[in-house]
Amino acid sequence: MKSREQEYRELFMAEALEAYDAMSQHISVLEKRPDDEAALHELFRLMHNLKANARAIGFAEIGEVAHRMETIFGEIRSKQRIFAGSLVPVLFAGVDAIGEMIRAVGANQTLPNSSVLLENLDRVMRGEEPLLDSAQAAPSDEDANRKLELSDLVYIPIKKLDHLLNLVGELIIDRDRVLTLSQEIGNLGLSNVAAHLSRLADDLQYSVMDARLVGVGTLFNKFPRVVRDVATAEQKQVELTISGQDIQIDRNILQIITDALLHLVRNAIGHGIETPEERTRAGKSPLGHLTLSAQTERDDVLIRIIDDGRGIDVERVRRKAVARGQLPADVAARLTDAEVYSLMFEAGFSTAEQVTEISGRGVGLDVVKLAIDSLGGQVRVDSQMGQGTTFTLVLPTSIAVKGALLFQLEEHSYALPLMHTDSVVSLRPEQLHAVGGMLLAKVQEEHIPVVKLAELLDDSDEPLQPADREALMGRQDIIITSYNGRKLGLIVDQFLRQQDIVIKPVSQPLDMIDLFGGVTLLGSGQVCLVLDVPALTRLFIARRP
Amino acid sequence: MTEYSAAAEKKSPRPEVPVQLIVFRLGNEEYGIRIEQVKEVTVTPEIARMPKTPRFVKGIANLRGDIIAIIDLEERFRLRRADQPLPLQTFTLAIEARDYTIGILVREVPQPISIPASSIEQAPDFIQDINIHDKYIEGIARVDNRIIIVLDMLKLLTPGEIMQLRPKATSSATAERK
């Protein structure tokens, strides 16, 4: 395993070399057409990025040069200067010096001295004539004979990796198929090849998934700035702690949760953490604490956003939900805290009475919920009045493969993602109770509504017929699903097994039906629908008798 | 073929490009689809019924790794009596619709034929008598004594058509069946 520092250094090198190549190219364009705006703009951008990257990893000298070059290119861009005269060789020397310094970093050598260059850049910035010696005015032999280098790292557009992952998904399906067939045929040679193929496919899948993993830090490290800006706008004092940057997760998952995380962080500062005065009055330190942490738990990645603010006022959420007509007051009064928290994820819910610049702009936690749902993840909320709130995002490490429970219903196989499966139970009819037309099962001291999945999925959209316990014959296989704190038991014909599945999206035009998160192919070649628990839960609520 | 070419020559002096159709039977009539729209013809693979879809959407099937929807046009246009079940083995025409591939279930092996383009006529008024609404019909081809109804698959296979989505209907996917 490479150290993180080494990995960062390699990444820096790859980016910096590429930037250097681009700079050389653009500055040559500028020499021919001194007012080429695209080239100027690119040079400015490249200098700016290089400065930031170099400073972040501790190569201040590169940062210093890039910073001055950025300023000069910025002034040329805004027509305060022209790319002509003695300024030109200085800028060329600057680009060359950057190249040398980057190569020195790559070779682990001390960086060449750039004081003459810096002095000249400063002179140019002050509008003085730079001190040019002949060596700088004319390119030296050394420059002309410069070696060409290629980076050890390649950049791959994520689309190519997506394609690779899709292909691996197909391969896994066929691998299962081949394994099944080889068992049926029972030929020893075939079985051996199938077993080998299976190991290769596993390795390949692992490698492709691994290639897509990035450290959570790539997202987390953008937050110090966000927190600073939001805290300033909200006039709060916030200290951000980040941990678990090394935890690896699929790049696309990180992409999908970016907005959700931004939203939760803004919320934590806007609604959670109090003003310094309020905090002092409450006997807390005026400095609020916000923690972003990541950790792995089994195959999942947990991302937590923890604040030590005022906590969620459960009563206020209840009142708000009743006022919005989400549910009647008597029902609201009976909800547990966890159920109340789940109300906050409904569309349009916001307890912030004032609309501020940062939070409470009409978009609510439902955005967070949708993003996490689309990944098959979960959001958990813990809160203590006066002590703070923790949002936990439970995310899969990889998009491609998901653990699922396979079961049979009316002679077809279906899959249910394990992420939304709470438990499976097998109950006799007398262990179920019909209350108000709905079956209830008592599982671990909790009353859970139970419905026959076949009835829930029938063609009608009318309310379900009142449940009749007498109609149930023998033991019932029940899968308890859990979504947004709401549990629902589904009676199926038979449990089959637990299996890792590769989910393919449902093709058009059937993708209009949201009940299915996708399909998977079983080893037998059978098509298996993957149920979407959030949509199923919504359907149950709509059709509740 | 002489009589078609004679007919064709009357309309256009240049030799005509023939049109290739895949012809299949629905109910008691013959229908055709331009061969460019047909991706392949295959024995129908195992179909998984997809709940909450219109009845004529038989479900989804695995066609060489592609998961496609399979529809039954006889059921869609009520061309088959309820007491006529599908035979055990059916065939599927994989059709390229605008953005996706879709399977059409047929009872007998579809046949390719080649006809001059001029033998496809605009659908006449009597089309009201047959069960398929005229907006899906590209034209009528007369070949010997056969009448082949040429379907415009792109119109027939829009998502709205397949899912039976109608404006204003709240629960449109199931409206057809009630």
From TrEMBL, chain A:
Its EC number is 2.7.13.3. InterPro entries: Bact_Chemotaxis_CheA, CheA-like_dim, CheA-like_homodim_sf, CheW-like_dom_sf, CheW-lke_dom, HATPase_C_sf, HATPase_dom, His_kinase_dom. Residues 1-105 form the HPt domain. One of its GO terms (cellular component) is cytoplasm. One of its GO terms (molecular function) is phosphorelay sensor kinase activity. CDD domains: HATPase_CheA-like, HPT. PANTHER family: CHEMOTAXIS PROTEIN CHEA (PTHR43395:SF10), SENSOR HISTIDINE KINASE CHEA (PTHR43395). This is Chemotaxis protein CheA.
Automatic annotation (TrEMBL), chain B:
PROSITE patterns: CHEW. Pfam families: CheW. Gene3D superfamilies: CheA-289, Domain 4, SH3 Domains. Residues 18-162 form the CheW-like domain. One of its GO terms (cellular component) is cytosol. PANTHER family: CHEMOTAXIS PROTEIN CHEW, CHEMOTAXIS SENSOR HISTIDINE KINASE-RELATED. This is Chemotaxis protein CheW. The lineage of its organism: Bacteria, Pseudomonadati, Bacteroidota, Cytophagia, Cytophagales.
